[in-house]
Amino acid sequence: MTLLDVARARHDTPGCAEVVHLNNAGAALPPAPVLDAVIGHLRLEARLGGYEAAAAAAVKVDAVYEAIARLIGCLPGEIAVVENATRAWDMAFYALRFKPGDRILTSRAEYASNVIAFLQVARRTGLRVEVVDDDEHGQLSVRDLERRLDGDVKLVAVTHVPTQSGLVNPAAEIGRLTRAAGVPFLLDACQSVGQLPVDVRELGCDLLSATGRKFLRGPRGTGFLYVSERLADTLEPPFLDLHAAIWTSHDAYEIRPGARRFENWETNYAAKIGLGVAVDYALSWGVEAIEERVTALAARLRRRLGELPRVTVQDRGQRLCGIVTFTVDGESAADVHHRLGAAGINTSVSAVTSARYDLGGRGLAAVVRASVHYYNTDEEIDALCAILQY
């Protein structure tokens, strides 16, 4: 077992002195180096001007792509840095082309924004959206996915870790099947990057979207898209500007090569640099060590919640992560969330409107979500459980 220096992690995190933060799946507390990087660049912009500060920070900006590439096991040229994970996912999905009779396969745990995009394109093109069955553990059934994969399937799109449960979908097994079938695999890694080791080569995904604000502990308004080198130049993004393409003659343009065709010219340089610092900070701790501590803290929280008479833990999956969801008999999820918040404990609520296939199928209107990170402590878990005893 790798022991993290929790005292140092909390010292690096100013917010730990203010709140019990168990809403890391919403937005984690940023460490001081990220704050310093963002504020430092804003000060540089104030001194030099925005364009001039960006030019002066060119090395730092390039380092963002290199850091992300190290984090997920790819090349810097396979990374686009964009405003958020939703924009990253949308830029990939809407670059794909579908026709009537095509099929998309997805999971029961899929996130609302992704499903809405599926349904919109289905209305436009006549494609069909199919939800792969869960297995006995409540995760995507690899056997059912294999049964459904045929020549009409043009995309498999799956959320790695859903917003409403602690499960980790079997992404590597999905990637093995999609590669063998020659079907593109789009992985929403919004909740997994930063708390779990994610290697795109091992997972076999062609496209991956992620955010900065969650377990990576980066600034809000940052995200990135991985596009495999073999696929990038075959895709035309849903919109282009003079960063994504070059206006080559009066009536012609050329799209730039690689993943950066999915970016646009204007960007928040301070936040972008902060994202790179957040990635380096996570790598300095070691993602495997982070996973080990996060998983252990979450297991302790599930165990403690299971001892409380009115509480039901709602997590499903063979492999569980740092997201813990539960309900309390006789109280709505919103009321529990507010009661915990009044005691200085941050959690969040996942409602059926965010995960209708899953929560709706289980008859759950909403769940309380407590999501731990490596800077959290046993005492903070006990504090949450103490509130729920009454």
UniProtKB/TrEMBL annotation:
GO terms for molecular function: transaminase activity. PANTHER family: BLR4730 PROTEIN (PTHR43586:SF24), CYSTEINE DESULFURASE (PTHR43586). SUPFAM superfamilies: PLP-dependent transferases. Belongs to the class-V pyridoxal-phosphate-dependent aminotransferase family. Keywords: Aminotransferase, Pyridoxal phosphate, Transferase. InterPro entries: Aminotrans_V_dom (IPR000192), Aminotrans_V_PyrdxlP_BS (IPR020578), PyrdxlP-dep_Trfase (IPR015424), PyrdxlP-dep_Trfase_major (IPR015421), PyrdxlP-dep_Trfase_small (IPR015422). It comes from the Bacteria. Its cofactor is pyridoxal 5'-phosphate. Pfam families: Aminotran_5. This is Aminotransferase class V-fold PLP-dependent enzyme. Residues 21-384 form the Aminotransferase class V domain. The lineage of its organism: Bacteria, Bacillati, Actinomycetota, Actinomycetes, Streptosporangiales.
